[in-house]
Amino acid sequence: MSVTLTIFSPTYNRADTLPRLYESLRRQSSMDFCWMIIDDGSTDNTEQIVSDWKNQDNVFNIIYIKKDNGGLHTGYNCAIEYCNTELMMCIDSDDYAPDDLVEKVIGFWRKYGSNEYAGIVGLDCYCDGSIIGDKLPNQKSINLIDLLLGKYHIVNGDRANVVRTDLYKSVAPQESINGEKNYNPHIMHLKISENYDFLVMNENLKFVEYQQNGMTDSIFKQYLNSPNSFLAIRKYYLSLPNSSWKFKVKNVIHYISSSIHAKKKHIIRDCPSKLLCILLIVPGVLFSFYVKHKAK
Questions:
Q1: Which stretch of DSSP H or E encloses residue 121?
Q2: CA-closest candidate to residue 102, choices 200, 201, 182, 25
Q3: pLDDT-derived band of residue 130, with 50, 70 and 90 as boundaries?
Q4: Are the C-beta atoms of residues 272 and 239 closer than 8 Å to each other?
Q5: How confident is the model at residue 213 (pLDDT cuts 50, 70, 90)?
Q6: Nearest to 262 by CA among 227, 224, 212
Q7: Which of 17, 116, 213, 263 has the highest count of CB atoms within 10 angstroms of its CB?
Q8: Residue 270 has what DSSP assignment?
C-alpha cells in the first residue's frame, strides 16, 4: 500500500531512546506514512529491538537499513536514495512525534501544497511543549536562507522540515569528506531554498530532547574533528547574497578557525570575503585556540 510520507530516523546507538519515538508513531491518528530507520553502524541492540517491532502487528511499515558508520548526513543520503513517497521528514532517534503529526502535516499539504513550494517548515518544541526559539513569521511561506540570514527578526531555533522527496533527490547525495562525520545535512534544505520557499506551519511537529552526548552538546569537538566539513559550510554561507555584516563577521571568524584546523595554506586567497578575512585574521586565530580548548 502506497503512503504519502516517509518519516526517517538516522540513528547511532540510540536503543534507549528509539522506543519512545516508536510508541509515538504507533499513536498516530493517521497511518499514511512509513518509518525508515537508517542504522549508522550501531553497536548496541538497535537491530534486535527493530527486528522485534517488525514482527509485531504494526499498522505502518517499518523499513530498516543498516550501513557503515558515516555520520548524520550519510543517513540522510541513504534515506533519500531509498525513499519513494511524496514527502519526507526526519525525526531524530532521540526525539518523538506529536500524536497527530501525520494527520496535520498531510492535511496541511493537501490544502496548501503545490509544485510551487518545497514543503513545510514547522516548529520544534521541548518535551514540556515550549517552543524552541520564536514562532515563525505569520505569513504563508518563508525562505530558509532568509531565515538563516535573520531577515525575519525572530529568535531562530531548530525547526522541523517536511520536504518534497523529488527536491531532496535533486540536491542529494550530500558530499562526504574522507574521515569526517559531522557535515550538517541542513545545507541540502538551504540549497533547495535557492529556488523554493517552504509553507509556514506554526504548530509543533516534533518534540526534541537534546542528549548530553548528542551533536548539539559536542559542537566544539565537531569543529575540531570535521574542520573541512565546517569549512565548506562557512564558504557556502559566505557565498549567500544580501547577508548582514554581523552574519559575515561571524562566519569569516569561523571560516578562519576551520581553515586553521584543516591545515589550509591559502586562507585569505580562498575566502569568499577576502577583505573581511584580512581584517578578522586575529579574531579567527584566537577563536581557533578557543575551539581547541573547549574540545578537550
A1: strand 117-126
A2: 25
A3: very high
A4: yes
A5: low
A6: 227
A7: 17
A8: T
- Any idea which residue has 586562507 for its cell? 267
Could you say which DSSP state residue 140 is in? S
Rounded (10°) angle between helices 46-54 and 18-26? 20
The residue behind cell 505569520 is 138
- In the numeric block, the cell 565548506 is attached to 232
Closest CA to 41 of 64, 19, 16, 70: 70
Return all residues near 229 (Cβ < 8 A) that are at least 6 apart.
177, 180, 182, 183, 184
Mean predicted confidence (pLDDT) in 53-70: 93
Alpha helical stretches, state H, the chain: 18-26, 46-54, 72-82, 101-112, 144-148, 165-171, 186-192, 219-225, 227-239, 245-261, 274-279, 281-294
Residues 199/107, Cβ–Cβ less than 8 Å = no
Residues 241-249: what's their mean pLDDT? 96
Distance (Å, rounded) from C-alpha 188 to C-alpha 208?
21
Tell me the C-alpha distance between 176 and 39, whole Å: 17
pLDDT at 215: 54
Angle at 57 between CA 51 and CA 59, to 5 degrees: 105
Strand partners, 160: 122
Sign of the Cα torsion 120, 126, 132, 137 reads positive
pLDDT at 296: 85
Percent share of the chain, pLDDT over 70: 97
Between 66 and 157, residue with greater pLDDT: 66
**In this predicted structure, what is the pLDDT of residue 58?**
81
Q: In terms of DSSP bridges, do strands 61-66 and 87-90 run parallel, antiparallel, or are they unpaired?
A: unpaired
pLDDT in tens, 6-16: 999 999 999 99
Contact 225, 180 (CB under 8 A): yes
